[in-house]
Amino acid sequence: MSRGVDVLVLGGAGVDTIVQVPELPLPYADSYMIDSGIRARAGQTGDFVALGLSALGLRTHHLDLIGDDPEGDLVRALHRDRGIALTAVPQPAGTKRAVNLVGPDGRRLSLYDTSRTRAADRLPVPVVRALAESSRHVHVCITQPCADMLPVLREAGVTVSTDLHNWDGHNPYHEPFAHAADVVFLSAAALTDPERTMRRIAERGRAEAVVATAGAEGAYLLAGGELTRVPAVTPPAPVVDSNGAGDAFAAAFLFGRLSGEPPQRCALYGAVAGAHACTVPATRTDALARDELLSRVDGLESSPAFSR
Fold first, then answer.
1. Is 0.85 surpassed by the pTM of this model?
2. b vs e for 99-115, b when ≥16 Cβ sit within 10 Å of the residue's Cβ?
3. C-beta contacts of 88-93 below 8 A and 24+ residues apart
4. In this structure, is residue 230 part of a structural domain?
5. Which of 73, 124, 237, 308 is the 20 to 30 A CA-CA neighbour of 172?
């Protein structure tokens, strides 16, 4: 079967309104003056993964529910301008949106508008099946209603990845995604015992690799039954925003995997891309290009301080 798409990204399209605040948590006050401006830009988790994959030279297709509204126009324009194929399924409730409060140290607090999703939302099965069958890999965001597509993807015989984000290891909503994916990404932020959670994912599901990112502490990689630490990579410029770092890590890891690289090198790709993402202001959607990623990885591997 011809695979005309390298990666199909399901879900996670939307718009963030960025507010740069003087500190987090933000103390109560009647008002704040935001000198940097309050800006809306397209780019939520699925958009960022698609951008990262495309920048690395992978043929990428993104599918999600998107409204006929100003936010939807921003999402469509982003994909059009970056040359990323987009299948926009009409969403009467409107395009997903959020407000991100970003502190001076790059940390963020996200406020998600849940009124723009409905329990009855569905992706069109024939469209998803056809795209999956023409793809080498599918990355599934945990936005509703992507869980319903997991059996369809299994029937299509395509490998799957997902990002559980700040899962606590117990919320049952995340479990179908965790157990259906060949590669599982998550943040270690809410985990009391990352190794235990990672091994449980592998034991109960089909994951060949589980990655838990830990910010400035690097990441944990579970592959072939062995848990290893992935050292953090020093960002090439000052850290200004952590938004999108996990998505950049996932995109670069998948690039390595689809290029036939071993898990440890895939994780190094992810660490480099994630560090780069932390230097990109929240109002922009820049992604690390393939040549720059490989150049930085080569530089790290040739450094006397580098160790596997």
1. yes
2. ebbbbeebbbeeebbee
3. 88/13, 88/64, 89/63, 89/64, 89/65, 89/123, 89/124, 89/127, 90/65, 90/66, 91/65, 91/66, 91/67, 91/116, 91/121, 92/67, 93/67, 93/117, 93/118, 93/121
4. yes
5. 124
β pairing state of 183-187 and 209-213: parallel
* pLDDT, tens digit (0-9, with 9 covering 90-100), for 1-59: 567 999 999 999 999 999 999 999 999 999 999 998 999 999 999 999 999 999 999 99
Place of tokens 């630490």: 229
Domain that holds residue 161: 5-28+37-301
**Helix ranges, 205-307 (H):** 245-258, 263-277, 290-301
Let me know if residue 308 belongs to a domain: no
- Give the three-class secondary structure for 84: coil
CATH number for position 221: 3.40.1190.20
Tens of pLDDT, residues 142-180: 988 999 999 999 999 999 999 999 999 999 999 999 999
Parallel, antiparallel, or unpaired for β 209-213 and 219-223?
A: antiparallel
Could you check whether the bond before residue 145 is cis, i.e. omega within 30 degrees of 0? yes
Report how many domains make up the chain. Answer: 1
| Rg for the chain, CA atoms, rounded | 19
Of residues 216, 189, 186, the one with CA closest to residue 198: 186
CB of 193 closer than 8 Å to CB of 212: no
DSSP state, residue 277: H
Phi/psi for 109 (5° steps) reads -125, 120
